[in-house]
Amino acid sequence: xxxxxxxxxxxxxxxxxxxxxxxxxxxxxxxxxxxxxxxxxxxxxxxxxxxxxxxxxxxxxxxxxxxxxxxxxxxxxxxxxxxxxxxxxxxxxxxxxxxxxxxxxxxxxxxxxxxxxxxxxxxxxxxxxxxxxxxxxxxxxxxxxxxxxxxxxxxxxxxxxxxxxxxxxxxxxxxxxxxxx
Length: 181
Known about the structure:
By secondary structure, this protein is mainly β. The chain has one helix spanning 2-20; strands at residues 32-40, 44-50, 58-65, 70-77, 81-88, 95-98, 106-111, 116-134, 144-158, 166-180.
């Protein structure tokens, strides 16, 4: 009789462990890759990779505001430079979006070392991949987490300079975290 009980208990434990194998794997956070090349009256090459959502003196992230219908991408290096891109995208989605169609969709770059700031006169943003990582936006005060890949290019004029100096900015990003509400 003890053998039947032990065998039954062993089969029950084996069954319980086999049921645990059906749990879905959680995708790891992607590494962030951010590259920018600037040519013209100011030259700079920016290229960094940050593992799984970390940051150091450099960082890049994004947000989407449904009220403004606007995707915002920010990149910076502490005390060195900052880049801000604001595009009317209609959501966190793939597609090509023109800059400077309205006063809100613009790319700006500030080189803090030399105290020069630039704003776009033309350009575009292309989002090639937009994946929902975690959807919690339906909770009160929650935001959905997306990871996007894409690229951008623009012609920028120096703010307040006479005659205005011009720079060309082109860049790409992969694994950029975007909080959307």
